[in-house]
Write a structure and sequence with these properties.
The protein is of the alpha/beta class. It contains 15 helices and 21 strands. The strands form four sheets. It has a nine-stranded mixed β-sheet, sandwiched between helices. The chain has a six-stranded mixed β-sheet with strand order 14-15-20-16-18-19, sandwiched between helices. Helix 5 packs across helix 11, helix 8 packs parallel to helix 9 and helix 10 packs antiparallel against helix 11.
């Protein structure tokens, strides 16, 4: 835990006592701040009280004397309407910040040399964050990985000037971090998302761009330029005089890193220089993972890590749990846990990355089902359907892909594994990429992925 000594003696309100909110409360309390925590959930209030943290009804208490409102990222700041606590803070004239703002304030006060690598974008943030952390660690440097990826940033080990902090940043978190100042800022891509929380795509994009604009003067801005909005962010960063590395998976670049087949290339010298061939790195299959690898290469290079060390680290990357995670092999068959694919768009990346797929799908379907995946149906040898979505998925697949209603994950894996062993392909894949929420049969996608991994381990 990072004890927030810069806030010692200050009175702060904390609203939202989930993972990051509780971590902020503990860090402030440990640093000597006077806190009052609140959550709309009585169960979370009780949990905070049981942990020895001060709570109170901030709806009825006076806000005089508070120095800031620490808002959890899941609590609305602006849209669809500000949370009542935000309105109380604004009426009292106090700033509204988040846990990342507290982190950056503490780092600036005590260990400004500590390199912070901040990652955002609509897709690929978690894998890129994990991959950069892996590359830095494999290069022999001290590293801590946190933020939106799972471990709240204030729950990391105490700050030291030699540790590299690799932080995944959601748009909600960026919106609450006026003190944002990474050494390396990475923006991967932009597609419409979270419009309900930002009002419009333009509002969402503007929040994302703040991470790039906040990069330290001598730092590096790394930007994927394969969508128009992100390309414009790169252009504006360059116009501001920032150091910029562009990434493209669609076309060669005059300057930056781009994808040529399965090879990442560094632009320059005519044909460019091959950095690494991603063919054969199972955990980095697909164009989306090529962008993640390109971002990691650019970040590590800007931190002074040798190219050979970067390549070796990419080759040893174990992958992100529940995201195209290879969890076993039986003979020629690969078993892939993509349980984090809780909608069709998320499942698209795994389906696009493999051929000869024995697909396990289903659960609680999202709006639109899997109709948007039709261009990938030719890759699927057979679909093994589970959960509530099985009938609707079977109807969409009819005439394109043979299906079997399996009911449970265990039965689906049993049938898929047997069929894949008989497949005449050189590398058939049993893929759990449900394109559904898990709540009809599992508590969450992590539990679903863990169940699949355990069932694969038990196969003969």
């Amino acid at each position: 835990m990072i004890a927030l000594t810069t806030r010692r003696g200050q009175r702060l309100a904390i609203v939202g006592l989930g993972g990051s909110g509780m971590a902020a409360a503990r860090a402030l309390d440990a640093g000597g701040a006077d806190i009052i925590g609140y959550d709309d959930s009585p169960a979370r209030m009780a949990e905070a009280q049981a942990a020895g943290l001060a709570t109170g009804d901030l709806k009825s208490l006076s806000w005089a004397g508070f120095s800031a409102l620490v808002l959890a990222p899941g609590v609305p700041l602006t849209h669809p309407k500000p949370h009542w606590s935000v309105e109380r803070a604004r009426a009292a004239g106090i700033p509204v910040i988040g846990d990342l703002d507290l982190f950056f304030g503490e780092r600036q006060a005590h260990v400004p040399p500590a390199p912070v690598i901040a990652i955002t974008g609509t897709n690929g943030k978690s894998t890129t964050t994990a991959l950069i952390g892996h590359v830095i660690g494999q290069a022999g440097r001290q590293v801590a990985v946190g933020g939106n990826i799972g471990t709240p940033v204030l729950a990391l080990e105490p700050l030291t000037p030699v540790c590299h902090y690799v932080i995944e940043c959601s748009s909600y978190q960026i919106d609450l971090t006026p003190a944002l100042s990474p050494r390396v800022g990475i923006h991967l891509n932009l597609t419409p998302d979270h419009i309900d929380r930002h009002g419009s795509f333009e509002g969402y994009a503007a929040v994302k761009e703040r991470l790039i604009a906040a990069v330290e003067p001598e730092g590096m801005a790394i930007i994927g330029v394969d969508d128009n909005a992100s390309a414009a962010i790169a252009d504006r960063a360059e116009q501001r005089g920032q150091n910029v590395i562009r990434l493209s998976m669609k076309r060669p670049l005059a300057d930056g890193i781009y994808l040529d087949g399965t090879r990442l290339m560094r632009a320059g010298g005519g044909a460019g220089t091959v950095l690494v061939d991603l063919a054969g790195i199972d955990t980095l299959r697909g164009v989306h993972n090529a962008q993640n690898a390109a971002a990691a290469f650019a970040a590590a290079t800007s931190l002074g890590i040798d190219d050979n060390k970067i390549v070796a680290a990419l080759m040893s990357f174990p992958g992100l749990a529940h995201r195209m995670q290879i969890v076993g092999r039986r003979g020629k068959v690969i078993f892939v846990n993509d349980s984090k694919a809780t909608n069709a768009d998320a499942a698209r990346q795994a389906l696009a990355s493999y051929d000869h797929i024995h697909w396990i799908a289903g659960g609680v379907a999202k709006a639109g089902g899997i109709a948007d995946l039709k261009t990938l149906f030719a890759k699927i040898r057979h679909a093994y359907l589970i959960g509530d979505a099985a009938p609707s998925f079977a109807a969409t697949l009819a005439g394109h892909v043979a299906t079997t209603h399996c009911g449970t994950l265990e039965e689906a894996l049993r049938q898929a594994a047997a069929a894949a062993q008989q497949d005449d392909a050189s590398e058939p894949v049993v893929l759990l990429s449900p394109a559904c929420a898990s709540f009809d049969q599992f508590a969450n996608f992590e539990v679903r992925g863990q169940a699949f991994t355990a069932l694969v381990a038990a196969l003969p």
